[in-house]
Amino acid sequence: MVGGSRLVGEVRVTGAKNSVLKLMAAALLAEGTTTLLDVPDILDVEIMAELLRRLGCEVTHDQVGGVVAITVPAILDHRADYDLVRRMRASICVLGPLLARCGAAEVALPGGDNIGSRGLDMHVDGLIKLGARAVNEHGYLIASTEKRLRGESVYLDFPSVGATETILMAAVTADGTTVIDNVAREPEIVDICRMLNEMGARIAGVGSSTLTIEGVEELHPVTHRTVPDRIVAGTWAVAAVITQGDITIHNAKVEHLQIALEKLVIAGAVVTEVEDGFRVVMDQRPKAVDIVTLPYPGFPTDLQPQFIALNAIADGAALVTENLFEARFRFVQELARLGADVRTDGHHALVRGRLALSGAPVEATDIRAGAGLVLAGLVADGTTTVYGVSHIDRGYSGFVPDLVRLGAQITRLEEVG
Ligand code: UD1
């Protein structure tokens, strides 16, 4: 890509990756056909579809219409193999539903990935609390229960998104009432709770820190529209600000991005709500903004690299604190190849804004780092080549065509090696 263009126009955001993968797993809880709408056309959805097929489901994916239909048989296989789990860590979200449906689940351990160690201890402890046994054998997490799981009180040490989902999906058909305290409150958690309740679950406290789940005998399939992807919407908002552009983002919810949009306003942007989203206009060099990542409703870690890119060309210096994933700063070494002035120490990064970045080849190491590097490339002098585009494909559907429509000078090259 060649930097320097102002991005102007409109984009529509699809359903959230971090919701739809879990909704696909939740479909396992009901025999019959569950239909999901507004599904993004991204690689991770394909991986999850393949995983569900191997468990015995029929899965169709209409990429253009954004519809996934999952037909779940009466009897499911209960093993998620390493070849898929290693490609997508979120595969772990089949653990809870498989245990609930089959009384057993064998899921390959994902191991470390590019943004840190990401333990599973809270997932496992929660399932054990509900009566399951769990062992780690030959690289697989093997969970089983002879009887139905039973409702219990579970307290999470940290409001983990994944652990909340695993325990929730195991508890909806457990015997009795489960109370999960200190749960994650992300919009994606609200989305899965809503879908489970539509399926016949009885979950109270949706959106709060405590979920009370009265176990039911069985769930039924539904049709459900996926919540919009707040991280993709936030990425477009940063794109407008960093390029001093004007982008209207449709199918986006201001209330899901409150702190991030507030930061863009402090940077100098004008953000206005439109009927189904918001518009971000910027006509000056952005001012540097400090950020601290925290569980929702705090600033999302998945927008941290994009904001570091923004700070890299901002007026002033910013302190960025990462509280969720320790290795998420790895990407700043790539950003430094574009001339960014970023120093890290533990979970802090000090970003001193430069007047300009300078185009260079860089490598994306994860989805959001990839997005951050593309944003930086949009304002770097000369040509920037981002390698590892497959990471970006995991989270952003139609990213390059959308950028082109908004006026970016960018082309997608076939990756070699
Ligand atoms: C999800 C999102 C990811 C987002 C993150 C935080 C998906 C597919 N991914 O990841 O994009 O950045 O939420 O908003 O939805 N932890 C433990 N033990 C556990 C579980 C988690 O120590 O049992 C730690 C992790 O190492 C990490 C922190 O808790 O440091 C947050 O993890 P969690 O909220 O579970 O994130 P994910 O569900 O993996």
From TrEMBL:
Top class in the EC scheme: transferase
Domain Enolpyruvate transferase intervals: 3-403
Compartments, as annotated in UniProt: Cytoplasm
Keyword rRNA-binding: no
A GO cellular component entry from the record: cytoplasm
Molecular function GO labels: UDP-N-acetylglucosamine 1-carboxyvinyltransferase activity
GO biological process: cell division; cell wall organization; peptidoglycan biosynthetic process; regulation of cell shape; UDP-N-acetylgalactosamine biosynthetic process
Reaction catalysed by this enzyme: phosphoenolpyruvate + UDP-N-acetyl-alpha-D-glucosamine = UDP-N-acetyl-3-O-(1-carboxyvinyl)-alpha-D-glucosamine + phosphate
Swiss-Prot/TrEMBL keywords: Cell cycle, Cell division, Cell shape, Cell wall biogenesis/degradation, Cytoplasm, Peptidoglycan synthesis, Transferase
Family matches, as InterPro entries: Enolpyruvate_Tfrase_dom, Enolpyruvate_Tfrase_sf, MurA_subfamily, RNA3'P_cycl/enolpyr_Trfase_a/b, UDP_GlcNAc_COvinyl_MurA
EC number(s) from the headed UniProt entry: 2.5.1.7
Cross-referenced PANTHER family: UDP-N-ACETYLGLUCOSAMINE 1-CARBOXYVINYLTRANSFERASE
NCBIfam families reported for this sequence: murA (TIGR01072), PRK09369.1 (NF006873)
Family that this chain belongs to: Belongs to the EPSP synthase family. MurA subfamily.
The protein's name: UDP-N-acetylglucosamine 1-carboxyvinyltransferase
Organism: freshwater metagenome
